[in-house]
Design a protein that fits this description.
Elements lengths: L4 E3 L2 E3 L18 H20 L2 E4 L3 H11 L9 E5 L27 H8 L3 E6 L16 E2 L3 E2 L15 H8 L5 E6 L5 H6 L3 E4 L19 E6 L2 H11 L12 H4 L16 E5 L8 H13 L3 E5 L5 H23 L11 H10 L1 H4 L6 H7 L7 H26 L3 E5 L21 H7 L3 E9 L2 E8 L5 H15 L27
């Protein structure tokens, strides 16, 4: 859908979201309606370059008018938010996970987390692009690509990747379309695109936010979370999203655990705090930015403890087995709840659909992970049960918890990811390294990333990782760091980093 936005089955580049038709005479727009129309206008301006949105909700202006008429007040009242397109929203838009197989998946349901955001007064602006099927179809995938939404591009350099799978959520916030978006993560799909697009991302504790009516990968690791411009905004969004859901057993403690995450934010919260430095998960071109960030943490009173090594082999050896088994079970259960307009009712049906539509679905990469997941034995398989127990202990009790206790620290910090790599349809994702995000993902523990600097003009993030239910702590630490860091450079929508004014001359031959 290059160069246009899909709006309720039609296309438009008109900022009003009504296909360019003449506006009706009406009373002056209220503040919420104005905010929505500004977001639509910004989308019309930048979407032809970045493809971060699959569809704008044609009811957004109507939602805004209802809110304006209500006179409600609150931190999120009247704020437009983008929802990743594997999360259901009531209304005319389908929930596609980026796949043509779900192009008619209009369920008429709000995911519970969406219902909570509506209750907080937010406007559902539309659905964000994503890595198709949340990047689980193939190990050779290109992050940020979906058959429906095309290739999302990084606002800092348009030939660079946005990471996945919450690529559109990250790019849209970075590009200034919205300041609040929702992503989902199984392993890195909130924190990686947040880091690479220069925004804040929080993967909560698994079980703090409902997963009901979200296209699944892993019941052990899936969660939704906020992606925002600032830490305070992430705290506000999490406060609204979090809570127990009877349909999601993992959330039974959520109501007891959740707090008002924004209320306690303190710019002095680093003072006297012992924080572990994950040297075992640093490097990959981020050293100068990371060194500067550590100096800033010290200057704000943090006590930094070096942690040089950690053996994560047990995680890598077992996580994949868990994901493949849980994908089949979860996908079959989800598809069984979709409307009759969705012809694919099982993972096997999706595989057959992709084969029948190979030109549009599999022209860039295949579906070997879908096929492998289809061959698994399900939740009663002994090998799966063992892999799940081993990997969760290795990342949780024997991982994060052990590191915190052994080093007498309250949280861990490290670079989130390397800077963005180039979009490459030949070789797929070419990631030159990675931080310690898998520890938190496999353990089901929270992970916050905050922009920490630029590498050749491309953003990289600083990760804060803590024990289960430590979102309040991590947000406080990240907030104090963010306040000390100051404003972060905005994207310039360069065609490439190589075309930047301070780089391009260096690439020219010396004239003699």
């Amino acid at each position: 859908m290059a160069g246009a936005l899909a709006i309720g089955g039609c296309t438009t580049t008109d900022a009003s979201g009504i296909g360019g038709s003449a506006p009706e005479a009406q009373a002056p727009a209220g503040p919420t309606e104005t905010a929505v129309k500004l977001a639509q206008a910004r989308a019309a301006e930048v979407e032809p370059r970045i493809h971060s949105i699959i569809a704008l909700d044609p009811t957004a202006v109507a939602q805004a008018r209802v809110i304006d008429a209500s006179g409600r007040a609150g931190p999120l009242v009247g704020i437009p938010v983008l929802i990743k397109d594997n999360i259901e929203t009531a209304g005319p838009l389908p929930t596609t996970a980026g796949s043509l197989a779900l192009k008619d998946n209009v369920t008429g349901r709000d995911a519970p987390l969406v219902a909570r955001l509506r209750a907080a007064g937010m406007v559902m602006l539309g659905k964000a692009n994503l890595s198709e099927w949340a990047n689980i179809r193939s190990g050779q995938s290109i992050s940020g690509w979906s058959a429906i939404g095309g290739q999302t591009r990084n606002p800092y350099a348009l030939d660079r990747n946005t990471c996945g799978s919450s690529s559109g959520s990250g790019a849209a916030v970075a590009a200034g379309i919205v300041e609040y978006a929702v992503g989902t993560e199984t392993d890195g799909s909130i924190t990686c695109p947040a880091s690479i697009n220069g925004i804040v991302g929080l993967k909560p504790t698994v079980g703090l936010v409902s997963r009901t009516h979200i296209v699944p990968i892993s019941v052990s690791q899936d969660t939704a979370g906020p992606m925002t411009r600032t830490v305070r905004q992430a705290a506000e969004l999490l406060t609204a999203m979090a809570g127990s859901d009877p349909a999601d057993k993992a959330t039974r403690e959520a109501d007891k655990r959740k707090i008002d995450y924004a209320a306690g934010l303190d710019a002095e919260s680093l003072r006297g705090k012992r924080i572990g430095v994950m040297r075992f998960a640093s490097g990959f071109g981020t050293d100068p930015a990371f060194t500067a960030s550590l100096a800033l943490l010290r200057a704000r009173g943090a006590v930094l403890v070096e942690i040089k090594s950690f053996n994560d082999k047990a995680i890598g050896d077992n996580e994949f087995t868990v994901l493949m088994n849980e994908l089949k079970t979860g996908m079959n259960a989800y598809l069984a709840t979709t409307p009759a307009t969705v012809r694919a009712r099982t993972l096997a049906d999706l595989i057959a659909f992709n084969q029948a539509n190979a030109g549009r679905e599999m022209g860039l990469f295949k579906q070997e992970l879908f096929e492998l997941a289809q061959s698994t034995k399900g939740p009663n398989d002994a090998a799966y049960k063992k892999a799940r127990a081993v990997s969760r202990w290795a990342a949780g009790g024997g991982g994060i918890d052990k590191l915190l206790k052994a080093n007498r620290v309250i949280a861990l910090v490290g670079p989130t990811m390397p800077a963005a790599w180039k979009i490459d349809a030949v070789h797929g994702d070419q990631i030159s390294g990675g931080g310690a995000g898998s520890l938190a993902a496999v353990a089901g523990y929270p992970h916050l990333t905050v922009p920490m600097g630029l590498v050749r003009g491309l953003p990289v993030g600083l990760s804060f990782i803590g024990p289960k239910w430590s979102e309040g702590l991590l947000l406080n630490l990240g907030y104090a760091y963010e306040q000390a860091r100051g404003a972060f450079p905005a994207p310039q929508f360069l065609s490439s980093i190589e075309s930047a004014p301070d780089t391009a001359p260096l690439l020219e031959p010396l004239k003699r």
